[in-house]
Amino acid sequence: MGYGTTRWLDRVLASCGLLISADLRFVCADDVPQGGVLCALPALLTEGLLRHTRRLYSLPAGYYPLESIFLYLALLTLVRCPSLEQTRYEAPGEWGKLLGLDRLPEVRTLREKIGLLCGQEGRATQWQSQLAKEWMEAVGGGDPEKEGVGLFYVDGHVRVYHGSLTAALRRATKAALARHYRLLG
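Below the sequence we write its predicted structure tokens.
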């Protein structure tokens, strides 16, 4: 079964095709690495992370439910995991506690599930559009407390120069070179 597997009966039933998906069960635990990321779970759910997933997406019967895949990807993003391959070096049982399962899926399994989800043409666009529509309606829905509130996204990519004029780029490059030579001299 593998390390961290405690719900072996559910896994056996899923492998025989007798279980559609395992239930998410969050249990009390002490000293779970990255456990603080669960503080973001209410905000993720409020913003609609799982709101339309069952309507727009489907997975074949198996151990890992659809919600666990979406939750896992969101939590990986919040802990700044650079790639799915990096999860090979994480403790599967500890991450399972964060997901409400006994362990996290193997990278191969996760890639298969994501492949199935991405293979459903146009679903991501529908999901994204539906959430954006709901967010915009909530902002402009006539509620005086939310009036004038907007959404702002910053992805962390910062460059000195943007646009078609090259003069600003030359000035920035010259300034950087001048700093470099001052440090050397």
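The helical segments are 8-15, 41-47, 53-56, 66-78, 92-99, 107-118, 123-139, 167-184.
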